[in-house]
Write a structure and sequence with these properties.
heterodimer, A: alpha/beta, Rossmann fold, 2 domains, 16 helices, B: mainly alpha, two-stranded antiparallel sheet, 3 strands
Amino acid sequence: MKPLAVFALIALCSSSFAEPTPIELPPAPGPATGLADPAALRATVFGTPPQDIGPLPETVPLLEMDLALPWRRPVPQIFWFDKRLRVWLSAQKKPAPLAVVIAGTGSDANTSKLSVLRAILYGAGFHVLTLPSPTFPGFIVSASSTGVAGDLLQDGRDLYAAMGEIIAHLPRKVRITDVDVLGYSLGGANAAIVKSIDDTQHKLHIHRAVMINPPVSLFASIGRLDKLYAVSLGNGDAGIERFYQQLYAALANDYRASGRVALDEDFLLGAAAAVLKTDAQFRAAIALSFRIALSNVFLAGDLYSGAGVVTDPAHPPKVGDSLEATAQILRNTTFAEYFTRVFAPYYLKRLPNATVDSLIAQNRLDVIGDQLRTDPDYYCLTNSDDLILDRAELGWLKSTLGGRIAVYDHGGHLGNLGDRQQAADMLAMLEGRWPGGR
Amino acid sequence: MAGGAVMRTCRAVMRTRLGCTVAVLMLAGCATREVEFHRWPAETPAANNRADIAKLQGLQAAGAAASKPAPQASPEHAGSAAEPPSPPVEPDDAPSLKTYDPWARLNRFTYRFNARFDEALFLPAANGYRRIVPAPLRGGVHNFFANLTEVDSVINYTLQGRLHRTVRSFGRFVINSTLGIGGLFDIAGRLDLPYEPTGFGTTLAKWGMHPGPYLVIPLLGPSTFREGVGYAVDYGTSYEINLADLYRGYQSWGLGVVNAVDQRANIDFRYYSTGSPFEYETIRFLYVRKQLIEDAGLHKSKPVPKPNPNEPAGK
């Protein structure tokens, strides 16, 4: 993560927002495995070192597809630019299997992580289609049938429907021999759910699903992220303001010492390693990046569900209105608040027999536990120091998938995505060459 | 005769109408087609990776050099050795999280206009240019325009009283205009004279002028009042100097378009790729902090002015 991104995160933080909530979320189980590990924190923030990535092809063609999906709901004015679902295709010239890759929490279909996966998969002879996360605002607006993102099954159904439309509209000369899905972080869980839906509907004939650093329980993971935020930045303005001030001073001093005439990307790249120093700062940066993603999900969910937590349903914000006050409120709004004030009220009303506990239970990978256990076409790659899992969850993944999981000792959350070992194992899984698989 | 005139008018009207109808249909078609395809220039992952590794190694080498006990003063520092070293920027010197934006209404409108213009015209043109024109040729074009800006840099470094940089920019201009064949090749860059342009906005900053309110300029994007004035003066200067008669007449239009496309092709930014309605706020936050840090870098000997915590940043 570049310091620019760190700054972007800060742009959306501060202020207070607390009201008693009728719905209570149970406390998150045990701490995540990698949070106390300095190496895991750094790997998570900086990502895979470039010299470890590979092998990469020289060129990868890139076609952007913008789709107007027939089930799109009326678009709130302030989301006017998100009307079309934007996905990216890199097609082989000859018949080839299609790898569909789903991005992680809050991310669009062209992140640097997707770019790495795209290159590796294209180099290995796949057509590659990259999709945004169902929690990316562009997906929520253009492709969600509810507008309230974060429900594993509902997001899976929306993704599956969108994939059907996309594949039906691929350029005619793209000839597909097989379809596989994969995803990183939340996208990994999404990918597995999409395959499980296809196993009953048989519309896309998805062959294999590969999860990269997936969460096991969505609500345990978000509970951990809320806690991470509270511990590293506290509640209210003070913590976030202090963090911002520290980063600002560090950048300003580095810049003054550098003798450069512009604060450009090259400078930021050099400063990146120096700006974040303590473990606490790395934790804060990670917590913030998730909080930023939540702000968008929260705002969209609030508008679509009519919950009226940060917007007035009778007078929704218009194009050109300042969103500074809303951003300020959302900076201090937790995942738990999204669950209790927007998500749960919406789904409890919609699903007649649902309870808070059932909503939490259906947002675990257990919902497809039987398939994961018995179907040899589900695979997983993760790290024993991943920040979004605890030991019990990692143990569950191992016992459920048996030989179809690769667990690396280091990398934190996605800090070894695309390194040589991980890339080779991922391709072995996708191509059915993995020793523990079929 | 009168009949002929009427016929001509009719034909003109019909032609206009036909043109309008075709245009409307085309535009409407663009907006309602189920799928739109946009071809992008191919990615070059292997080359990008090699560049990333080289950059990282360079940074590590620089880091190792910087950690040695005797720091090497750049000639710029040497020139101002009389100035006492300034105290470092403390966290308390950081401006407020809020940003001063008295022209927000207009700025938001312009930001939206820029986003639409970019998506419809500017970005497709830049992508087409990157797809069709081979990289070495694009590099030449980029160097050519960079070389033209050296003239303005020489003037402004002089006005800023930064002699070393004035000489360097002048040297770059002479070397690249001659050995670099009219600026097509950046020979000076290879001789360790890096390209570091400046403009009148920075001169005003050096003279102590405050950035002023945040300003989104049509087509150009995020800026401040002071930088906006700077752009205008820079353009005026180039126009007055009219180097090689490039800035007057028809050729100036062609040149302007190519320059704009070249610039856009070298900026890795896409409006609303964040998908977020908070993008305006985010970009404004980043731009104003960047500007304030650059200003602090210009006045090394002076302590950074203490911000008033109750005032938004940039006021």
